[in-house]
Amino acid sequence: MELALLYSGGKDSSLAAVLLDRFYDVRCVTGTFGVTDDWQHAERAATELGFPFDRIDLDETVAREAVARMYEDGYPRNGIQYVHEHALETIAELDVDAVADGTRRDDRVPTVSRAQAQSLEDRHDVDYLAPLSGFGRHAVDRLVEVTFDVEQGPSEEIPKSDYEDELRVLLAEAHDVDAVAEVFPDHEQTYVHGRTD
Amino acid sequence: MELALLYSGGKDSSLAAVLLDRFYDVRCVTGTFGVTDDWQHAERAATELGFPFDRIDLDETVAREAVARMYEDGYPRNGIQYVHEHALETIAELDVDAVADGTRRDDRVPTVSRAQAQSLEDRHDVDYLAPLSGFGRHAVDRLVEVTFDVEQGPSEEIPKSDYEDELRVLLAEAHDVDAVAEVFPDHEQTYVHGRTD
């Protein structure tokens, strides 16, 4: 069975790939708004893990709407959620049996409710899987530790492909760098460099 | 890492076992109130799948309280939920790194909320995993189909070990067989007979 996984090169979506690999032909798919080449980080991480990779073009209008929303809010949550839903809708159009993402039980954003999941499945005739949604932060960290060689650090220093960098660029363009610092508080990111074994 | 999985011999907990097997030393654990020998069905199913098995004694007071609740309600949901929570608390006392169950995204009962999961983890210093909570009914059915040799039929004819039979017996003892028919409407159950491959 063919599965398209929304993939960032980070630990969560990498762990989701390994979990789903037991049952599906997993393809790591990274969405891009065409603003930066950050999707290449995800391609490199997927290749190091041995999964096929695809880049998929997202609608730049969605990115601009998300950026406007984040600037208005003063925080990124609703903008990120909007982009994630758009990315899921986009990969659900692919010719696959299932789509998936790396959302965890403890994530505040993005989240996909049971009703949203069912709606996505019904409209696109595809299964939606969130294999980590029954795993808490501690369990994910332990599994990541035994499974991957991980680089961790402040989000602006870690190569990644989770739309955040593209949204930062668009936010700086629409406003200025102070707006970026205001909307995106410092937080830690991870990037996966292959497996430990 | 050692993991104790609440196991019934049905398709959901069997699929959970296979998913978790990628990362954990999975032990299938079936709780019993000592009312029937139904736990033996789960032992047989676990053995056919190649997983170690343990029986664990549950508190019969809990079963009697659950039966009283179900009789009062006229439906089994709250009683089943109560027993499931007791079973999770019981296996969380075992010397393991993680406990798990086979609850799915679309299950109405039992359910374990994010707050309940966190509380269980904090009080017992253990990870709680619900590996199927991000999988809908359709996805589970497809994965079961390619993974297991399954027997399906009305719940009273399928050998299983999900407390239901023990609760039925206690309900009949406390009241009569009409009470059992009233509380437990007909529904389909599954029993796993080994793998397809």
Structure description:
- 2 copies of one chain form a homodimer.
- With 197 residues, chain A is α/β, with parallel strands linked by helices.
- Helix content of chain A is 46%, strand content 20%.
- Chain A is built from 8 helices and 7 strands.
- In chain A, the strands form 2 sheets. Chain A has a 5-stranded parallel sheet with strand order 3-2-1-4-5, sandwiched between helices.
- In chain A, helix 1 (11-20) links the parallel strand 1 (2-6) and strand 2 (25-32).
- In chain A, helix 3 packs across helix 7 and helix 7 packs across helix 8 (177-183).
- The A-B interface holds A 1, 18-19, 22-23, 97-98, 103, 105-106, 114, 117-118, 121, 127-136, 138-139, 142-143, 146-147 and B 1, 18-19, 22-23, 97-98, 103, 105-106, 114, 117-118, 121, 127-136, 138-139, 142-143, 146-147.
Topology readout:
Two copies of one chain form a homodimer.
Chain A: E1 2-6, H1 11-20, E2 25-32, H2 39-49, E3 53-57, H3 60-73, H4 77-91, E4 98-100, H5 114-124, E5 127-129, H6 137-147, E6 148-154, H7 164-174, H8 177-183, E7 188-195
Parallel strand pairs in A: 1-2, 1-4, 2-3, 4-5
Antiparallel strand pairs in A: 6-7
Helix pairs in contact in A: 3-4, 3-7, 7-8
